[in-house]
Amino acid sequence: MNILGIALLVFQVQRASISGTVTKPGSNEPLPGATAILRPASAESPLPARSSQLTAERAQFQSAQNSRIRLAITEDDGRFTVGDIEPGDYRLLVQSPLYGGVAYGQRRPDGPGAILTIKAGQALADLKISMAPTGTIAGRVTGRGGEPLAYARVQALRFGYQEGKLNLTATQITTTDDRGEYRLFWLSSGRYVVVASAAAAPMIPGATTPPIRPGGIALTGDLPFQGRLGLPIILGERQEGTSFVKHLLDDGTLREESWLPTYYPATTDRTQATPVDVVVGSTAGASVTGINITLGPSPVQKVRGRVSNGNQVTVTLIPAAEGTDSRLLNTTASVIDGSFEFSGIIPGPYYLTAQNRNGLVATPIAVLVGDRDVENLAIAMAPAITLSAHVALEGVTPGTPDGLTGLVGTLRSELVAVPRATLTQPNSQLGLGNRMNWTNVPPGNYQLSLQQPALREDQKRFHIKSIRLGREDAFETIRVSPGTTDVLEVVLTTESGSVEGTAIGRAGDPAANVTIVLVPANARKRTSLYSSLVTGNDGKFRFQEVPTGDYKLFAWDDVETGAWANAEFIAPYESRGRAVRISGNGKEEVQLNVIYNR
Amino acid sequence: MRMLNLLLFFLLSQQPPGLPASIDGVILNSETKQPLAGATLTILDRVTSGGKWITVTGNDGRFSFRSIPPGQYSIEASRSGYVSETTGSPLTGPRLSPDPLAPINTQLVQELTPGQVLSGLRFVLTPAGVISGRLTTERGEVVAGAIVQAFKTTYQNGLRERTLVQSVVSNDLGEYRFFMLKAGQYYVSLVPPKLAIQGVSNQSFSIPVFYPGTIDPLKATVIDLRVGQTIEGVDLRSIPIKNRRIAGGVQGNGSDGVDVLLSPVNGTANLKFTISKDTPNPTFQFSDIVQGSYLLVARTKDMRSVIPVEVGNNDLLGTRATLGPGFRIPSLARIEGHPPGNDPELEKIYLSLRPNVAVPGLEPELYSPFADGGFWLEALKGDYWLEIARTEDYYIKSIRLDGMDVLNQGLHVTTSVEGPMEIVIDNRFGTVQGYAAAPRVTVVLVPDAARRNQRPLYKSGKSSNGIFHFEKVPPGDYKLFAWSEDTIDNGGPWLDPEYLRKYEDRATPVRIEADKKTVLDRPIPAF
Asked: In the prediction, which pLDDT does A80 show?
């Protein structure tokens, strides 16, 4: 045996292995043919704290992590053995094309799963993993005359947290068959809102979308799965002008109706929907049947008004309720008298905005469409505001190199519940004299976020230290009004600190697999100041490169992702958070008691 | 729900403010010929997008709209569970095209004056069919959330093809259901779900399983669906995947990137595996391969290799694909009647080398001779047809290689030859004209039995009034066929000998001579 051979032998001796058994959902029946995947824990969050790695560096890291992934297929008795493991932190996932995916030790469906710290030469045996049982909601969609409606789109909506707001997202979408029947499946436990909407027969064969598998696993040929927040809710096939139907009544009057999304059992008002509870046991799936929905046309309204000044004004109607069809409606005001009209408008809250190419904008108007047409809206156009910012890096003499080149600032409107891609988000790149300018800014409240270009190895991340508009503190909210002429003063800092510690469980021992959240003490609207992670086997956690300031640390045994940014959610826990002050290059060490909800 | 069905465009007068127009008519069931209650008639203002007007038929199947503002509308009749089949309007017959061989305009256009009453419209809806069943694995487990596809046989360039008609997803009970199907012959296939594991280059792929349980579509059972019929119990069971692997290496790619494709013979699934550049003699591996026959195609931008692979009970780990330009055949083309020497016309001519059996990923090669007529054909071992391409001004009169009739017998490439292969091109055509016994037909000119392999000799055209006229027909014996528009697939089923056999006896023979006009004085029968 040559030297290389001996080296290989020694190397292999240090490799570890794990083994276990996979069972079918809700039973002890072994599951053959499932894939056990051992994935490096850090593969999911590339390199701690520094998110803007250079592309090549990141790719290299990724491929190094990928090379540590190990797979095994379960045998007929459900057993698997994963060998040839380098020591390190891993997560164990089991995926099956039939039953979806689960993570070993996950606290909730789609949860991250426990970190397995595997030591050299270790043989971790007898891990037990059961595929997650799921629930089904089934029923029929019929017209008001009881006739089955085919091709109706039915969605199971669930509340989830997005940027601190509790919003409905679609967890599964399906369509009814020719008998009007539907089955929404692979649902986890929870309270659902079921909504049906009429849709035309699909033009393209093969347009049916497969449901999301438990654990969000992908199949070959699937489109990449976009996050875990769920699908965007699709309400109605809104094509301006064709989404409504006209009926000429016998008395000669014209009635306009539209097939509005209808919530179980038969309401177009979401707040009146009867929720459907799916209770999936740890050992059995659940099936809720008879969730029948009646669909029919409901009156739709017109929204009319006049623009008092300006040429070629584009008027835009923006749905304002969260979780509604996010497409915007545009119309052009008449050149003769400035009048505009939107037809076929579904009742609900909206915002009306207007702008033209000559730099005129209107202050957004809130419009509530009810059971009659909205008339006589008056829009006054005013010169658009140009907002400027001056950006400075703390501790750097003006005029000397500060490395801020390439910085991009984005103004995000607080108008709607959740920022949508369809809403304009003015961007500005840092220009001469460290200035940023946003033109055509409609009046309203905004938040400024900065994107730093890819970091070089010797560079540090910038953090916003303060934002002021005139005498006002604009760190959380920038109030732009028609008279705004002040320049935003933005001060950045490279100062950051870190905090680390141990989560302490009920028995006073280190708590593994709990969620640690760092919440800003003030400025709770700035979502970029939040961070979270899950403790490893030793209960330890560590946040690095945290912008300096006051924070609170929380540890939850089980918490819904993002819930902590919601004021209502966090209020009862405030007293159980632990205040920490992160100072420049300082290091805090804390012991944190875990909050148990069960 | 509303089905997008009959679409009929017509014009109302564009002169507002005129008297309002009105429309009435009836919707019928195509099978019972009885009025259809509960059907929806929708008229859509096509100009102003001002919304839809809808009405629902009563027990007498009748509908009427009064006081419709003048404008341009499209009309649509629909009912859940029915599909459109034909439209009948007493007002307008099929619009006759001035050019008999131009496609018939299937959109019926009618201009109405203000105040006109458009009366007696007739829409016919056909009851739709259903095919349903249940999916299980070979172990009897329910297959939920899997894609099931319904195909129909159609023709494309004369080749029988499966065309996807519908794609549905099985529910949590493993049940699937195709509905709104027209009558016809269907195949059903399951696409077994297969994991894509993030971060792992996964070369396994999903091969469709055809009802009742085969990966070979030729062995699939045809499901014959009659009008309005519901066929249940079309259950599909996935085929055990024995986890066979095909692995090997590619030689002769230099530093070029190589695509390796694995394609089930007759199958629909192609697995493409791209090997990055700068890797001399790269390796490949396909895993989870179902037993069966495949073609392994390796190709760079210049070179290729095609190997038939039979996957049985063992892994095939030493598969070696040697890339090469193929065998060389010196060729010489000339145009009949042109003087010897350089002929610039030859440089404008393209010849296509079409493999007898289409290989996915390999397009027919195109060649153009030099002015002296010379060029080199390069081909892998196999059978080919050499055809004229991109022009209708010339045809190939003969191709001879070592005494063989390559034009009609094909080119059998087994090795390089000395040649040269002699190609004679001609441009002296004849014409033929006549009429079919019925209007709305597709007329097809098919060469005599000896020349049936020459695709460019087939000519086809649609005729609304039955009159046909073919120009630029290479001289020789032909047969004329006419099929009614409603029965013929546009993808050239007449190139399929099996299809043609049924009509052969009733076709009309015709002889075409160079520079002569042939006129048929009797109508040809329409099928």
From this structure: 95
Amino acid symbol at B3: M
3-class DSSP state for residue A475? coil
Number of inter-chain CB pairs under 8 A, A vs B: 152
Give the pLDDT confidence of B197-214 residue by residue, as tens digits.
777 665 556 778 889 888
Q: Which of B42, B172, B195 sits opposite A136 (nearest CB)?
A: B172
Domains, in order of start, for chain B: 8-127 (2.60.40.10), 129-237 (2.60.40.1120), 244-322 (2.60.40.1120), 327-426 (2.60.40.1120), 430-519 (2.60.40)
Letter string b/e over residues B453-490, b meaning 16 or more CB atoms within 10 A of that residue's CB: bbbbbbbbbbbbbbbbbbeebbbbebbbbbbebeebbe
Region of A268 on the Ramachandran plot (φ > 0 left; ψ -120 to 50 alpha; else beta): alpha
pLDDT confidence bin for B194, thresholds 50/70/90: confident
Give contacts of B 162-181 with A, CB under 8 A: 164-169, 171-173, 177, 179-180
Q: Is A374 on the interface with B (CB under 8 A)?
A: no
The answer on A566 and A447 residing in a single domain is no
For residue A219, give the nearest of B172, B173, B196 by CB distance: B196
Domain carrying residue A522? 496-593
For A49, phi and psi rounded to 5 degrees?
A: 70, -40
Query: What pTM was estimated for this model as a whole?
Result: 0.74
Minimal Cβ distance to A185: which of B3, B65, B172: B172
Quote the ipTM score. 0.77
Contact across the interface for B167 and A206, Cβ inside 8 Å: yes
Give A32's DSSP letter.
T
A497-522 pLDDT tens trace: 889 999 999 999 999 889 999 999 98
Residue A546 within a domain: yes
